[in-house]
User: What shape does this take?
Amino acid sequence: MADLSINLAGIKSPNPFWLASAPPTNSGYQVQRAFEAGWGGAVWKTLGDPILNVSSRFAAINFNGQRVAGFNNIELITDRPLDVNLKEIYETKKRFPNHAIIASLMVEPKQEKWHEIVKRVEDVGVDGLELNFGCPHGMAERGMGSASGQVPSLVEKQTYWVKEAAKTPVIVKLTPNITDITVTAEAAVNGGADAISMINTINSLMGVDLDTWNTIPHVAGKGAHGGYCGPAVKPIALNMVAECARNPRISVPISGIGGISNWQDAVEFILMGAAGVQVCTAAMHHGFRIVEDMIEGLDHYLDSKNISAVSELIGKSVPRYSDWGNLDLHYNITAQINTDVCINCNKCHIACEDTSHQCIDMIKGDNGRSYLKVREEDCVGCNLCAIVCPVEGAITMVEQTSMQPMTWNERQAALNSSK
Amino acid sequence: MSEHEQYLAEKEKIDQLLSEGYNIYHAVENLDGAFVEFFHLKSGTKKTLHIRTANARKYFSSIFIQQKSS
Amino acid sequence: MVTIKTQRISITDLERNFEEADRGFTNQEALEESNRCLFCYDAPCIKACPTGIDIPSFIKKIASGNLLGSAKTIMSSNPVGASCARVCPTEELCEGSCVLNHSTSPIQIGKLQRYATDWAIKNEQTLFKAGTPNGKTAAVIGGGPAGLSAARELARFGFRVTIYEAAEKAGGLNTYGIVSFRLPQSISFWEVEQVQKLNVRILTNTMAGRDVSAEELLHSYDYIVLAAGMAHVPDLRIEGEELKGVYDAIEFVKATKSGKLSRDFAGKRVAVIGAGNTAIDGATCSVRLGAENVKILYRRSVEEMTAYDFEYEFAKQDGVEFRWLTAPKRIIGDAEGQVAGIECVQMALGDPGEDGRRSPAEVEGSEFTLPVDAVIKAIGQTRHLPLIEAFGLQHEYGVVTADKETFQTSNPKIFACGDILFGKGKGDAMVVTAAQQGKLAAYAIHKQAQTAGTAK
Ligand SMILES: Cc1cc2nc3c(=O)[nH]c(=O)nc-3n(C[C@H](O)[C@H](O)[C@H](O)COP(=O)(O)OP(=O)(O)OC[C@H]3O[C@@H](n4cnc5c(N)ncnc54)[C@H](O)[C@@H]3O)c2cc1C
Ligand SMILES: Cc1cc2nc3c(=O)[nH]c(=O)nc-3n(C[C@H](O)[C@H](O)[C@H](O)COP(=O)(O)O)c2cc1C
Ligand code: SF4
Assistant: This one.
C-alpha cells in the first residue's frame, strides 16, 4: 500500500481526499460520518455571521439522460451560530485527531472582523483556515465572497489581516469568476497565504422552465444566479490549477477543487500540481461512501506505477503544460480506422465531412460490404472522429514522421529577425 | 485540387528554387498568406513565392530556420 | 418485440391473461434507451425497416422530449407504426441491423417506437391532414394494414377514399387476428381513426363481391386498391374434421378479441396443428383461456418452423409443448360428436423441396393417439379466389400478380397490396410489409393520376 497521506502547507491528513466546504460539511454529525467513511479531511461549511437561506436551493443539468452533469446552488454560508459550529468542530476533532478539519471563513472585509473569527475558530483546535473569497451569489451582493475575491488588492489585504492573527496555515479559496486567476492567486501569496484552493463555483443560471417560464431553480417565481460545479466544471478547474501551478510567482501548495468525481479525476489534479483535492458535488450525488473507491483506486494506481507515496505525483504533469506558442507545429498525427472493430455507424464520416476536413470516405468494398477509410494526407489530426466514435479501439490517432520540431514562437522569432 | 495537392504544388515550387541554389532571406505574412522572398547569392536574382497553404507555410519556415542555423 | 418480465397465467381471471403482456417503457427507461442510440449517419436500421422509418430521428426526438415529432416521424413512414411497434419481428428487422449488435446490445427500437406512439395515443393527437382534393376517387377493398396504409397516403394526396371492409370493424388482422396480449384492439382502432380523420370513409360490414359487386366498384371509382388479405385456414383433409371442438385458428383468435372470453377451454387439452405465427397465437390463446395442456403438432422439425424465435420463446414460456415431426392422421370423436383424441403419425425429413424446406414423410407403423378435447388448425390461410376472379385479375393459385414496384395488377385501374400478394417463398407475411406495399401502391396511383391529369 502506497503512502496516501499528505501535508498541505503543514496541514496533515491521512489521504488527499477532503470534503469541500459545502452542505456535506455542515455539521459535526456529517463530518464525523464522512471521516468514518474514510475522508481524510473536511473544510467546514463556511463560518461567518449566520445567514438566512431560501427554499429551493439546488438544480442540476442532466445531459442526454446522464444526471448531474453539472450542479448549481443559491445556498449561502452556514445559517447556524458560530458557537454551535465551534462546539461540533471541537467534538469532531477530539474523535478524529488525525483527520484534517479546516475552518472556512467569510466575514466583511474589515480587519477586526477577521481577527475576531480567526481567534475564535483557532481556539477550538482547527488544523487550518480557508478564506472563502469565492461564493458568487448572495454573499457577493453584500461585498463578501467573490465580490472581494475578484479584487486583487482586497484578496491581498484580507489575507494579510488573517495572517496577522492566525497561528494555523491559511488557505485562500479563489473564485473562478475572473479572467485570469493567477492574478488573484498572486495577490493571495503576496498577502502571505500558505496555500491556495480553487475553484469555488461559477456564475450560472441552470435553466428556464418551458412551461412556467420560471428560472431553474426558482424561489416563489423568482430566481437569481447561482454557483456552478460538478463534473462539467472539471476542465475549467483543472486549467486554473495548472495555470497557478506553472506560474513561478505562485509558490504555495494548491488544494484542487472542481468536478472531482473519482480517483482518476483526483490524480489528474495532483499531476497538474494540486497537493490534495476537495470534493463536493460527487459526495452530494452519491453520498460519502464514494471515498472508498477513491482511496482504493488511488492506491492501486500508485502501486501499478511503482510509486510509494502520493506526494511524489504532485505536479508531475506541470512541465508539460505550456503556452500555445511552444507547441511543435510539425507534430503530425492522423486518424486510422480499424475496420475489424468499426461498427459502421458512420458518425466519424459525417462529423469530418460536415464539420472538419472531409477526409473520411465511405467506401463499398468488392464484397459489397461498406467500410470507412481516412485519406491520411488530408487528415489534419484534429481528433474529432476519434471523439465521436462510440467504439473503443475503432479509431486510433497515429503519429506520422514529421520534420524537425518548430514552435510558433521559434518560427516568429526567425521570421521577425529577417525584417 | 485538394488542400494536400495544393500543398504539394507549393512545396515543389519551394524545393525547385532551393535546388536551383536560392535561399530564403525574408518573408512577409498578411491576410493572403505568406510572400516568401528568395535570393540567389551567385546571380543576385530575387524571386517571390506566394505561399497559401498552412502546411507549406510551416514548411518554408522550417527551411528558413535550418538555413539560418547552418 | 415482446419481452415478458413476469410470466403468469391466471386460471381464474382470464381477462387479465389477455391484457397486453409487455408493459412498455417507463419514461425513465425510454430516456435512457433513447440516449443510448448513436444517431448513426446513413443508419442501417432505416434500411432494415420495410417502411423505412427514420429511426435515429424518432429516437433522438424521444431523447429531446419532442414526442409529437417522434410519433409523426414514425407514423408518416408507417401508418400502422403503433401496431408494428408491438408485432414486428424486430430482431430480424431494425434491431437486427443495429450497429450496436457488434459492440454492446442493440437499441430496443420496437419498444421506443411503442413509447412514442403510445404517447400520441394517450394524448389524443391527430398526426396528419388530408391533402387538397384532387378530384379523384379510390376504393380500397379491405381495411387491414395494407388497405389503411394505402388509404392514408391516398387521402394525403387529396383522393376521396372509401374503404370497403367485410368485418364489423376495420384493422384487419391487427384488429382480429393478432392476439390481444401482444396487440390490444385499442391500438388498431387508433390507427383506423387516424385514417378516418383524413376524411376517409370506411364502410364496415360491407364485403366486396357480396354487398357490392366488382363491376359497380370498377364503375364508380377511378382507382381500386385490392387489400383483402388472405382467407380462412384450409382444411386438414383428414377424418373427423367436422367434429365439435375443431377450430380454425384465425376464427379462434378472433373470438378472443370479440367480446366475452369463452370459459369452455378451462382445464382442457388442446392440440394445435402447424408451427407458424398463427399456430403460436392459437396455442398461447388456449393457454390463456385456461387450457390445462397445449401441444403444438408440427410435421417438420424446429428448423423448418416459420414462427419467429421470439414467438417460440413466448409460447414456451406460456408452457406450450412442441411435438416435432408429428402429423395428424385422424381426429377421433366421442358418442356426442365431440373431439376426444387425435391420431398422429411420426414423420421423417427427406431432401429439401422447391421452397428449400425438407419435406416430411410418414414413418410407417408409428401411429399413436393423443387424448385431446380440442383441435386448432393453423396450417396457413386460403386465398380470396372468388373476389380475385370477380375482378378478373391475373393470379397464380390465388396470389394476385402485380408489378413489384407499382403494385399494379393486370387491370391498370387496380392495384393490390398486402397478404393478397403473399405467396410461398416470398418472404414473410408481415404487417410492416403490408403497410409498405399499401404506401407504394398509393404513390404509384398518385403518380399515375398526376400524369393522367396533365395529359388531359
Ligand atoms: C394469427 C396471426 C398472427 C400474426 N402475427 C403477426 C406478427 O406478429 N407480426 C406481423 O408482422 N405479422 C403477423 N401476422 C401477419 C399479418 O397480420 C398480415 O401480414 C397483415 O395483417 C396483412 O395485412 P393485409 O392488410 O394485407 O390483410 P389483413 O390484415 O388480413 O386485412 C384484410 C382485410 O380485408 C378484409 N376483407 C377481406 N375480404 C374482403 C372483401 N371481399 N371485401 C371487403 N373486405 C374484405 C378483411 O376483413 C380484413 O379486414 C399474423 C397473422 C396472423 C393470421
Ligand atoms: C450547495 C453548495 C454550497 C456550497 N457552499 C459553499 C460554502 O459555503 N463555502 C465555500 O467555500 N464553497 C461552497 N461551495 C463550493 C464548493 O465548496 C466547491 O468549491 C464547488 O462545489 C466545486 O467542487 P465540486 O465540483 O466538487 O462540487 C458550495 C457548493 C455547493 C454545491
Ligand atoms: S434534499 Fe429535499 S427534502 Fe432534503 S432538505 Fe433538500 S429539498 Fe428538503
Observations:
- Residues A 20-23, 45-46, 58, 71, 73, 75, 77, 104, 132, 134-135, 173, 200-201, 229-230, 233, 257-260, 279-282 surround flavin mononucleotide (ligand 2) (CB under 6 Å).
- Chain C has 17 helices and 16 strands.
- The longest strand of chain C covers residues 339-352.
- Chain C has a mean pLDDT of 93.
